Amino acid sequence: MKKEKIILDVGSSTIKVYKITNGKLKHIQNKSIFFKEGFTCDFGIEEKNKKLLLDFLKRIKTDNHGLLIEIYATSIFRKMKAVTRQQFVDDIFESTGLYFNIIPHDIESFYMQQALVGKYNNDLALIINIGGGSTELIVMKGRDVLKTHELENLGVGTLITKYPEINNPLSGVGIGDLVKEVEEVLPDIDQNIETAFYSGGELTYMKLSGYNLIKNNLFQDESHPNLISFVNFQERNNDIFKKVTLESLKKLMTENPKWMHGARACSAVAQAICKKYSIKNIIPSDSNLVDGIFRRPFRKVVISGSFRKFLKEILEVRNELAQKGVEILSPRFTEPKNPGEEFVVFEGEEGESPLVSKRHHISSIEQADTLIVVDPKGYKGIERGYVGASSLIEIGYAHALRKKVVFTETPDEFMLNTLPAQFGL
What we know:
Elements: E1 5-10, E2 14-21, E3 24-32, H1 47-63, E4 68-73, H2 82-96, E5 100-102, H3 105-116, E6 124-130, E7 134-141, E8 144-152, H4 156-162, H5 175-183, E9 195-198, H6 202-208, E10 214-215, E11 226-229, H7 230-242, H8 246-252, H9 263-276, E12 281-284, H10 289-295, E13 300-304, H11 311-323, E14 327-330, H12 354-367, E15 370-373, H13 389-400, E16 404-407, E17 422-423
Parallel strand pairs: 1-4, 4-5, 6-9, 9-12, 13-14, 13-15, 15-16, 16-17
Antiparallel strand pairs: 1-2, 2-3, 6-7, 7-8, 10-11, 11-12
Helix pairs in contact: 3-10, 4-9, 5-9, 7-9
């Protein structure tokens, strides 16, 4: 897998650009495009915003020539009708050569969990992930996720739509009333939880906005240096609603001032959650799904390629992914009984016919999130990646199921280069 790459997190109004280099993840740039303006489920984003997006992607590609660029889009892009979404992905690919990966909500949730699980091992903790139109609550203990609550129709945009006066110079609606309203729709959680991660850029926001942060004395992690008591969080929220103008907040975040349009609504939802569950310590976090991608790039994968020709390369990819905790659905086993023969049988598959083994391999694509095609360069003198007939069947099936397809090398076959996919791992 490439040691240096660019990752783009594309949301409803902001594109966050990250770079992985020397084994570290660094946030390098934000770009504001307000995709919600003029958006419809039938037609998607407005043409002017689509052009802005295309121009930005082309510039990123030019500025990072030769680097792998991965895109993960969430939020509003999921609301497009299936046909519109597919056409949009096709258009982006044809214009830029980049795969615009619109991830489903469960994959976003998985990456958010991966970003934070294992950070705090002392006791139970709650992850609070507040989005534009939904909120997710994850109860975890160490690396174990105990319960996930997905709250549809509760998010920043929900409150702003219902109470637009929240973004008057000083809020036209009281935070106490909002907290009471949100509390009423929150689910009961049986566990006694004292600590919560409040994710989504909140560490940066709280530092800029004067919250009374103290040193994190619960655990050591350079990404989470601070915490705040619920009492102090509540006190500063009251000031943000009653004493600090929206314009003052926007001036604090010169790179993306409109981010502050969601600050009050987000704080109200978070305060209601922390009050409902008697949270004592809040750990503000800038971690997001990209941090999860960095820690564990895939959830469930099937690895395709010629086991006869490229077994060594396939097992290298398999082992590297497994070390990162990725669930490999197929190939299931790693020790070949007859390497180099027409149909490779692994230890554990003895007695299975080639038909049974192949059907298991193909059917595994249905449960996978991604099909990874190992297609090394140089086979039979081919300068690009070689893809055999068996893999072609699997690639076609994966595309029919609208699964993400990743080639380890750009394939030689012309038609494979016309199908939206990621070229590089």
